[in-house]
Amino acid sequence: MAGRVEAASGKIRSLLRLLRRDGVEGAIRSDLLDRGRSLDELGRTLSWLDFDAWLTHLPGDSAYRRLVDPIGVFTDVGPDLTLALIDEIRGLRVQLGSGAEKRAEEPTIDRIQRVMAARELAAATTVRSADVVDIHAKRSTTPQPKKSPPRTNIRERLARARAAHN
Questions:
Q1: Where on the phi/psi map is residue 160: left (φ > 0), alpha (ψ -120 to 50), or beta?
Q2: Each residue of 46-102: pLDDT tens digit?
Q3: Are 65 and 72 contacting, i.e. CB atoms less than 8 angstroms apart?
Q4: Which residues pair with 16 in a beta bridge?
Q5: Statement: the pTM of the whole predicted model exceeds 0.90
């Protein structure tokens, strides 16, 4: 029994680490709200084990799955069938079109994968916020000597002292 409790607590920790990743909490919260639940219910009316099972078996069009695997939406049967139908309709258009032989376009899924790969490459080559150098952090941390106050003549200091006492 103790082994099950330790395994559950380890799974809870891993789920908490997952939620702390950039953008993940918002995507999961959105998916839960789509299903009439809230992330605030986690640990109360939504058990951690149920949450883990739900998260593991999310459909490809969920916000979390799109965040983790943008092309994952095409692993579902519905979008796959839709893309196949689009390709077939395009092929029929080419065959029924003018008498001149037109070349068939590449399959839609191949075009989508090419575009997604180009986006990922562009995202990898752009400057991330972690790569930006904070010039304020580069300032020297050695203590600077205190500047002495500007010299004033004795008459000005006496006048200030008298004004303060009156």
A1: alpha
A2: 888 888 888 888 887 788 888 887 776 666 777 778 888 888 888 888 888 765 555
A3: yes
A4: none
A5: no
Contact status, residue 32 vs residue 75, Cβ threshold 8 Å = no
CA 2/CA 27 separation, integer angstroms: 33
Distance CA 82, CA 74 (A): 10
Tell me which H or E stretch contains 75: none
For 33, the enclosing helix (H) or strand (E) is: helix 24-34
Give 126-157 pLDDT, tens digit per residue.
Answer: 655 555 555 555 555 566 666 666 666 777 77
60 to 2, 10, 15, 28, 43: CA distances (angstroms):
36, 26, 20, 13, 25
Whether 76 contacts 59, CB under 8 Å: yes
Work out the angle between the directed axes of helices 48-56 and 2-20 (0-180°, nearest 10). 60
